[in-house]
Amino acid sequence: MLGLMQQWPLLNHKILDHAATQHPNREIVSRMVEGPIARQTYAEANLRARKVAQLLEREGFCAGDRIATLAWNTGRHLEAWYGIMGIGAVYHTLNPRLSPEQIAWIMNDAEDCAIFVDLTFVPLLEEIAAQVPTLRKVVVLTDRQNLPPSTLTNLVAYEEWLSEADGDFVWKALDENAACGMCYTSGTTGNPKGVVYSHRSNVLHALIASLPDSMALSALDVVLPIVPMFHANAWGIAQSAPMTGATLVMPGGKMDGASVYDLLDTEKVTFSAAVPTVWMMLLQHLEGTGKMLPHLKRVVIGGAACPRAMMEKFSRVYDVEVIHGWGMTEMSPVGTYCKLKPETAGLTGDALFDLRQKQGFTPFGVEMKVTDDENKALPWDGKTFGRLKVRGPAVAASYFGGVGQENFDAEDWFDTGDVAHIDKNGYMAITDRAKDVIKSGGEWISTIELENLLIGHPDVAEAAAIGVYHPKWDERPLLIVVPKHGKSPKKEDLITFMEDKIPKWWLPDDLVFVDEIPHTATGKIQKTTLRDQFKDYRLPTA
Amino acid sequence: MLGLMQQWPLLNHKILDHAATQHPNREIVSRMVEGPIARQTYAEANLRARKVAQLLEREGFCAGDRIATLAWNTGRHLEAWYGIMGIGAVYHTLNPRLSPEQIAWIMNDAEDCAIFVDLTFVPLLEEIAAQVPTLRKVVVLTDRQNLPPSTLTNLVAYEEWLSEADGDFVWKALDENAACGMCYTSGTTGNPKGVVYSHRSNVLHALIASLPDSMALSALDVVLPIVPMFHANAWGIAQSAPMTGATLVMPGGKMDGASVYDLLDTEKVTFSAAVPTVWMMLLQHLEGTGKMLPHLKRVVIGGAACPRAMMEKFSRVYDVEVIHGWGMTEMSPVGTYCKLKPETAGLTGDALFDLRQKQGFTPFGVEMKVTDDENKALPWDGKTFGRLKVRGPAVAASYFGGVGQENFDAEDWFDTGDVAHIDKNGYMAITDRAKDVIKSGGEWISTIELENLLIGHPDVAEAAAIGVYHPKWDERPLLIVVPKHGKSPKKEDLITFMEDKIPKWWLPDDLVFVDEIPHTATGKIQKTTLRDQFKDYRLPTA
C-alpha cells in the first residue's frame, strides 16, 4: 500500500523558487571580482538563473552535461549553479588552488563542455583550455567592459550574454536522483576522484544543514560563506541560505582579515563559515586594529581542526559561538557539528573547550560508526579510536567512473579515511587520517594529537608527526617542527613539554626542525611528501 | 546521468534509530493514563517499538495493514506508532472526540485490523467493536493489573504483551513511498476522508517542521505536545522531537490548566503546541494561582485562530513567544508559521501583534497561492482574498478510496477550503472557510474577521457569523452571539462597536443572542448547524 501524498521531487531549483517567492527582496550582497560591492535580490537571482538556463538550452547544452565553474563566491556564481541545474546539467566546481595540470586532468575526466570563469582565472584557463577538447564555451563572469583580450575562443562576457535572454524559462521536470553537481576530492595520493551529487542529495543536505543543531539558519540571519563554493559546496550554504531565506554575503576572492572584517561589519553578518586559516587572518586583523564583532553570533569552523586558542579567543574576546564542524566532499559535506546537548550544556571553562575541540555529533541523516581494521564496530567510550565510517542520503555511494570502490562496503558504509573516537554522548573526535596514523607495535598513535599538543608550545609555529621505520616497533613517531620566527627551541625541551600530557609510548623518538612544511591545495599538511622526504631517516632509537 | 549518492530511503524508523543512537538517554516523560508520571529514554522506546513490531509480525500482521490507535499522547502510544510503521503497517489515529458512530464508520472505511487503545477509551471501543468485523486484536495500553474486565475478545494488556518479545527485530526495508499512517479529516459535511501519509512525507515533514523558522527544535529543547497525536500527527512533533533529540513530555489525557502547568514547571518545558482552548485554560490557571512560566520560551498555537488578547498576555505577562501556526490534516499538517523576517523584525507594540495574528509564511516544501473561483492567482497585497491552495511533498495528492477528487487539480494544487490573503512579505492570513464566506452582491465578507472583531468586545464570550438569504444581495451577515456570563450587551452597542473597524458594507444586518454555539469534535464552530438553524431567518433589511 502506497501513501497518497504528492509526488514533489526534491529539485534544487525549488529552493531558489522558494527564496524568490517567500523572500523576494532579501539580498545577495557580493564583493565582485572587479572590486565594488554588488546587490541583488533572490527574485533577481532567480530571473538571472533562468536566463542562464534559457541560454544554455538555446546553445544546445542539455541534461547530464558537465559545466564547470572556476570562480569565487559571488551572486553570479550562484546564479550560474542554479541555471546549470535548472536544465538538468551538472555544475562542476573546479578548485583554482590545484595545479593547472590537475585542473586539466579533472576537466578531462569530467568531460566538461562549458565553463563559467572569474576574471581572476582567465589566465589559468588560457593555460589549460587547449588540453580540454570537450570545452566549447567559456563564459567570463564579468561585463563587456571588463572582458580582457584573450587567446580563448568561444568566449563571452556573462552580462552581455545574459542580455540575450528574457528569463522566460520553465525549469525542467527532472528525476530527483538526476545528477546536479560534481566536485573532485583533492586526494593526497592518486588521481582526484569525482563525487556526483543528485538533486535529492543536495535538497536533503540543505534541510539537514539548516536545522537548529546544524547551522540553524533563519530568515533573520545574514550569512557570509567564506568557504568557497568549490570547497565542498560552500558546506551547503549555497542551498541552505536561499532555502531558509537568509541574506547571503558573498566575499568574492578577498579573504584577508581586513576584507572579511569589512563585510562582517558593513553587512551586519550574523553567521559565517570558513577554515581556520581564514579566521586566523581575521583575528590578527582585529587584534591589530582593536575592532570588535558586535553583529556576528556564530561561526562554523571546519576543513581542518580548529586550534583551541582560536576558539577561546572568539568566545571570550568577541562573544562569538564557535561551532566545530566536520564533513567531506563525499558527504555533501556535512558530517557533524559540535553543538551542546543536555549532557554537555552545563560545561564551563576548560571542560567546555575540551568538548568544543571535538568534531561533534551527527544530525538526522548522517549515520556513523568507528570500526577496527576487521570492520568490527568499536565502543563509544571517547577513547577507542578506529576507522570512521558514514552512511546517509547525502553520502556518496561511489565515485565518477567507478574508481575508488574500496572505500564503500556492501552495506553502503563509506570509509572516510579518518580515524576517530566517539564518546558516550555521541560526540566524535578525529584523531588522525587512516593513512597517517602511526602503527607502533600494532597499536595506533594519533599524529593529530601529537601535532596539536606541540603547537601549544610558545616557540612552535607548526608541527607534523609521521611514522618512520623502526626495527622493533615497525613504526615510531618522528616530529617535524617549524619554529616560530626568531625562536630556536631545544629538542629536549619540547619532549619534556609533551611528557606528562600523552601516554609515554606516544612520545616521539626524534624531532627535526625545518623552515617549512609542505601543504596541499586545501591547506592540509602533505604527509606523503614528508614521509617520502624522511623515508630513510634513521631514528636514534633504531 | 544519475547522481552517485547513497540510496537511503526516508523511513520513520530511521528517526527513532537516530534518537536511540545520538540521544539514547534523552527522556520521554509521560503522564500515564493510570495517573503517575513515567520516564523512559529514546533507547528504551526504540527497543519497545521493536518489540511491538516483532509481536505484530509474529501475529501475522503485515505491510499495508491498518492498525488503529485510540489513545492520548504517551510514550506507549509513540512506541506503538513506530512499531506499527516498522513492519510497514499503517498507524491509523482515531479521534475519540468523534461520535461512536463516526469512529465505527472510519474504522470500517480503513478496515482496521488491530487497535492500540487507552484504558480511558475501552468502554467506547466496547460500544463499537462489534460493528468493525475486520478488527481481530485489541491491545490496551496498560499493564496486567490495570486491565479492566471487558466484553472485548482478543484483548491483551500492552505491557504483558510486550514481555513476550525480546526486541531482536530488524526494521523492514521499505519503499519510502509506502503508506505509514492515516488520519481522517473531521469534515463538517459529508463522510470523513482518509489522508494516507507515506514514510517519505513524514520524514520530509519532520525536517521541515524542525527548521529554525518552523518549530526550531534542538537537543536542548523540552517539548510538550499537548496537541494530540490523533490531531494531525501532533503537528509533526512525534517525528520532529526524536529527529532532533529533544526531550518529549507527553501529557496523557490531562489538558486542564493545573495539569499542563504542572508539567511545564516540573519538566522545565521550553516549547509546547496546542489549540487556543488549552491555552485559555492554562492562562486562567496562571491568573488564579499567580504562577509564572520561567522555563517556557515559545508556543505554537494552531487549529483555530489565536485570540489577540491571548497572544498579548503570553508575550507581555509571561515573556513567551507565541507562534501562530496553520496547517491541515491533508498537509501532515504544516502550512505556515508566523515568525519574523527582516521586513517585520522591527515591528513593536500593536503593529507586531497585528502581524502575529496572521498565520505566517511557508517554509521550504510548502507552496501556496490564493486564487479566485476561476483559479486565477490573486496578488499578494495583504487584502485580496481568495481560495488558498497548496502543494508540497507532505501534502495529500488524494484521499483514501479516491473520494474528494474535486479538492485536487491537475497540477496537484490542493484546495484547502480556506479563504485567505497573502501580503507582500509572504504572510498569509486566513479570513474564512470557503463554505462559510458570505457572498454579498458577488463580493466576499470574511466571517472570521467579523467574529474576531466582536470577540474583542468586553461583553461577548463567543460569536459566529453566517450568511442568510437576502432578496437583493443574495446573502447578508447575521451574527450569533453568546454574551459573557452575567452580561446583557445591546444589539445597537455591538454594531456601534464594530462600525469604524470594518468596511461599512460588512456590518451585520442583524444580531441574535444565544446561550451556546455548537462545536465540532475538534472545537470549531459548527457553521452548518447554525446555517440550518437560521435558514428561514428573515433579516430586518430583507
The helicity of chain A comes to 25-40%
Give the spatial strand order of the biggest sheet of chain A.
2-1-11-10-12-13-14-15
Q: Which outline of chain A best applies?
A: globular
Largest interface: A-B, 75 and 75 residues
Please give the radius of gyration of chain A in angstroms: 24 Å
User: What structural class do helix, strand and pairing data of chain A support?
Assistant: alpha/beta
Q: Give the amount of beta strand of chain A, in percent.
A: 15-25%
Oligomeric state of the chains present here: homodimer
Give the total of beta strands of chain A.
24
- Unreliable stretches covering 5 or more consecutive residues of chain A: none
Per DSSP, the total helix count of chain A is: 15
- Gap from first CA to last CA of chain A: 68 Å
Largest sheet, strands/sense/barrel of chain A: 8 strands, mixed
Mean pLDDT of chain A: 95
Write a compact overview of the structure shown.
By secondary structure, chain A is of the alpha/beta class. Chain A is 28% helix and 23% strand.
Describe, in plain words, how this protein is organized in 3D.
The structure is a homodimer of 542-residue chains. Chain A is an alpha/beta fold and 542 residues long. Chain A is 28% helix and 23% strand. Chain A is built from 15 helices and 24 strands. In chain A, the strands form five sheets. An eight-stranded mixed beta sheet of chain A has the order 2-1-11-10-12-13-14-15, sandwiched between helices. A seven-stranded mixed beta sheet of chain A has the order 7-6-5-3-4-8-9, with helices on both faces. In chain A, strands 16-17-18-19 form a four-stranded antiparallel beta sheet. In chain A, strand 14 (321-327) and strand 15 form a beta hairpin. In chain A, helix 9 crosses helix 10 (276-289). The longest helix of chain A has 17 residues, at 42-58. Chain A starts with 11 loop residues before the first helix and ends in a 9-residue tail after the last helix. The mean pLDDT of chain A is 95. At the A-B interface, helix 1, strand 9 and helix 7 of A face helix 1, strand 9 and helix 7 of B.
